[in-house]
């Protein structure tokens, strides 16, 4: 009989069968058993190495991801910021991403566009001021030269030239006053105070004031509103009063209508309070609608010379309304003339 001796629980391997002794006609063999076990240190290395490889690959992937999706786009934006040139817009930074980086690019493009528009407005403003001042000054110089050179002018001719010089001088004074008022208005907008104003009260005060004023000029004002007593706006009442003043003044100045009628209305829509000033005048051509709120823009230069004005009234209205967080726009009124609509945010409890 062959007997095996195995007192270990670990895996075994039979290396050899060794006869040990003979006893009672029985040969006893012992199997030489050796443990085949991997040491704990080797097992740890086998597990740790693949794990380190995986960690290394993950780190490389994350590094590439951050480089191409975060670091590189920011580097491009930073380089563009260093080279911003307000004198000429080359091209917008293009990106199709919808995440925070994409929003950052879009905000930068908007900022750069505003800078260029501001630069263009400054140049246009200087050109417009120079043009508006040059025209009457040229006339004044011409009349003065006539008075100096032509000694044989009659007293009536001299008086006529003096009156024309006086008229052109007053026009220059009006232009300077308009430029000064516009600049003052822009500065006041930066520090103006706002308070809660009841929409119905403001509307009725404006309507009553201009109804009497227009009636004195031979014009009519029809007004209506749908405001409730509990509806308030946060505003600077003095500044909003300027807006109404400019709108009524423009309607009278450029309406060119003998039986001019102006329509004032007010209502609440969504989260805004809306005011509309319309007239039955000659209106504005469609091609000029989008330019009405630009500084120094006038539909007809001949009308400007005849009726006065510098093209700053509606531009000033736009600045005031946008400073209040509202919007202003022009439209063709169903009454036949021009309509101006502006909004102010409704105050919520």
UniProtKB/TrEMBL annotation:
The keyword ATP-binding applies. It is a multi-pass membrane protein. It is an enzyme of class 2 (transferase). GO terms for molecular function: ATP binding; phosphorelay sensor kinase activity. The chain crosses the membrane at residues 43-68. PANTHER family: SENSOR HISTIDINE KINASE CPXA (PTHR45528:SF1). This is histidine kinase. It comes from Heyndrickxia ginsengihumi.
């Amino acid at each position: 009989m062959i007997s095996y001796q195995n007192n270990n629980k670990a895996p075994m391997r039979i290396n050899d069968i060794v006869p040990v002794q003979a006893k009672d006609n029985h040969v006893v063999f012992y199997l030489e058993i050796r443990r085949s076990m991997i040491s704990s240190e080797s097992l740890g290395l086998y597990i740790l190495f693949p794990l380190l490889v995986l960690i290394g690959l993950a780190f490389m992937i994350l590094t590439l991801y951050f480089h191409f999706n975060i670091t590189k786009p920011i580097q491009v934006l930073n380089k563009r910021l260093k080279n911003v040139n307000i004198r000429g817009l080359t091209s917008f930074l293009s990106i199709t991403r919808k995440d925070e980086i994409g929003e950052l690019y879009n905000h930068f493009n908007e900022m750069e566009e505003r800078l260029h528009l501001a630069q263009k407005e400054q140049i246009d403003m200087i050109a417009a001021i120079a043009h508006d001042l040059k025209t009457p000054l040229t006339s004044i110089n011409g009349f003065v030269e006539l008075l100096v050179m032509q000694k044989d002018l009659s007293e009536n001719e001299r008086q006529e030239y003096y009156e024309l010089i006086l008229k052109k001088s007053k026009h220059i004074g009006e232009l300077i006053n308009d430029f000064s008022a516009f600049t003052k208005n822009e500065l006041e907008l930066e520090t103006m105070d706002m308070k809660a104003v009841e929409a119905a009260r403001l509307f009725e005060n404006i309507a009553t004031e201009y109804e009497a004023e227009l009636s004195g000029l031979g014009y009519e004002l029809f007004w209506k509103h749908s405001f409730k007593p509990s509806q308030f706006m946060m505003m600077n009442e003095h500044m909003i009063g300027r807006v109404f003043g400019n709108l009524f003044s423009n309607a009278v100045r450029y309406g060119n209508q003998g039986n001019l009628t102006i329509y004032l209305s007010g209502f609440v829509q969504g989260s805004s309070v809306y005011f509309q000033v319309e007239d039955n005048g000659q209106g504005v051509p469609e091609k000029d609608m989008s330019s009405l709120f630009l500084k120094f823009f006038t539909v007809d230069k001949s009308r400007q010379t005849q009726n006065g004005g510098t093209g700053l009234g509606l531009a000033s209205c736009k600045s005031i309304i946008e400073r209040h967080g509202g919007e202003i726009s022009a439209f063709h009124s169903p009454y036949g003339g021009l309509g101006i609509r502006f909004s102010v945010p409704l105050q919520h409890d």
